[in-house]
Every structure is written in C-alpha cells, then in structure tokens.
Write a structure and sequence with these properties.
single chain; about 300 residues; alpha/beta; TIM Barrel; ten-stranded parallel sheet; about 35% helix
C-alpha cells in the first residue's frame, strides 16, 4: 500500500475547516494534558537481545536494557505495576511471545501486560488474548518502508489485516513512527488515513532516532516542521481521539522543540516531557496530570 501525496495535500486543505489543532483539542479535551514518567512499567524481551530482522532503525540495540521473562520475579512489586512484553522479531515479522506463553501466564497474574506482538497469526492471538491487557502495534502501510526498514517481503495490507484481526481479540493501540524510513516522511499520512477508516481508540506517535550501530545511524531525524505537520494532521483527522507522544524520540534540543510543537498541535499525553515542554504547557494554560506507567495504559 503506497501513500498518495497529492491526495494528502488536497485533504489537509479541507479537514482544517473544523479549526486549528489547538482549538480542536480545547473543544474536545479541555485544558488537561498528561505527562508520563513510566517508572512503574518494566520492559521484558522474550528473545533476550536477539532479533532476526536487524531492522535499519534499531538493529536490536533497544533490546539490551530489557529483562528476559524468566527473571520477572526480580521485579520490585512494590514499585512495578505493569510490564511491556516485547522482543526481537522472527524472520516473518512476529514477536514470538507464544513461545514463552507459560512465563507470560505467570507474569499476567501479577502485572498488567502491554504486549508488542508484530505480525502474529490469529491462532497465536487467540492463545495470548487471555493474558494481554493491551497490544501495542507498529502500524506501517508503506510497502517500500516495510522492505527497506524491516527487510520483510510483506506489504502494508499485511499490517492492516493483522491490526484488524488483533482488535477482535484484544485492546490494540497503534503506533506510528514519524520518519521511520531513515528520517523521511513516507507513508505516515497514509497510515493515518487507514486508521481513520479502521478506527483507533488512541494513536501513539514516536519519532525516528538515529542510533549508533544501525544502518540508519548517520541519517538525521525528520525535520521538526514535518513532524509537526503530521501531528497537526492527526489532531484534525482524529478530533475526539487521544493522541500521545511516546518515549522513543530524539533527546536534547530536538526534543525541547518537538515537545513544545506537540503541545501546540493538541497532543493529549507526552512521555518524559522536556523541561521546556513543562514550561510551555504552563504558558498555554494547561493543567498537568502526571502518570507513572507506560503511556499506552
């Protein structure tokens, strides 16, 4: 499934008739914004540090800080309330949570579980559904991005079909990585259009981080204006749907500016907001509520 930039441009001119993103957020959500410090959510990898795909943007680098599921009893249950259960992908794009189902079952008796499952089968979804409080699903519809970043032979239709299937069994929150294709905007607008048709109870955005040791290490993150345009368009497309800015995004001066842009675009929730964003929220007259678990909960 490929994006259509001409259709995108025409649509952006008409959707804005409802008002600008800030006015839309005030009309539908008032002046409350949620900031998140997710220290009560632990991260576990069902594959340890192993990933078969070696994706261009990650290369398995983000698996290193996660615990293997057999060590879940080391978690401090006076602090931790929930867990992100993720891991590297198998060659077909699925996260093999089903292979560790007994440990996941034990884990679910103690904590709420947010599961990252990838392109799993319906049979796997049926088995996992009893233990998942929710599913975080990377929603990508641009065929070229899927091939270049993940090295998968599949298409955007595979992601759409899996998303629809998962929603029959579990609560699913789609994630869109802005600039996933090496910092370029390629398919983000098409993903939003697809979600408008399919439905979403919330949308989480993350932003491409140039990460040392990966194929995309030397590429810049997406231009801030382009990120802001995507966020603003999302607010216009989903006036009554919560929109979040997740933890995976560049740090430093980039984050300072990005977080303020996100606030102006009507974001409902930001994970680990920068100091400048906290100040900006106050200047815009927003009431801050702090959360302490993964933003998807």
């Amino acid at each position: 499934m490929q994006s259509n930039r001409e259709d995108k441009s025409r649509e952006k001119k008409t959707i804005g008739a409802e008002g600008n993103p800030w006015d839309i957020r005030i009309a539908n959500f008032g002046r409350v914004i949620e900031f998140v410090n997710p220290f009560r959510t632990a991260s576990l990898s069902v594959t340890g540090t192993s990933c078969s795909l070696n994706c261009a943007h990650c290369g398995g680098r983000y698996l290193g800080h996660m615990l293997p599921p057999e060590r879940w009893k080391e978690l401090d249950r006076t602090v931790v309330r929930s867990c992100l259960v993720s891991g590297g992908c198998a060659p077909d794009g699925r996260v093999p949570v089903d292979d560790r189902l007994e440990e996941v079952r034990e884990l679910s008796r103690e904590f709420r579980l947010n599961m990252h499952l990838g392109l799993i089968s319906e049979a796997e979804a049926e088995r996992i559904a009893a233990f998942a409080s929710m599913v975080s699903f990377d929603f990508v519809v641009d065929d070229e991005t899927i091939r270049e970043v993940y090295g998968l032979p599949g298409t955007g239709r595979d992601y759409i079909t899996t998303y629809q299937m998962l929603r029959r069994y579990m609560r699913v929150i789609p994630h869109i990585c802005i600039g996933l294709k090496g910092g370029k905007i390629a398919g983000e607008y098409a993903a939003l259009e697809a979600l408008r048709e399919l439905g979403a109870e919330a949308v989480i955005f993350i932003v491409f981080i140039p990460t040392p040791g990966t194929r995309y290490a030397a590429l810049p993150p997406p231009a801030l204006k382009e990120v802001g345009d995507v966020l603003a368009h999302a607010r216009e497309l989903f006036p009554k749907t919560p929109i979040y800015l997740g933890c995976m995004r560049p740090r430093g001066a980039y984050r300072d500016e990005l977080d303020c842009i996100a606030i102006d675009c009507g974001i409902n929730r930001i994970v680990l907001p920068s100091r400048k964003a906290r100040e900006h929220a106050g200047k815009r007259g927003l009431e801050v509520v702090w959360k302490d678990e993964c933003c998807a909960f």
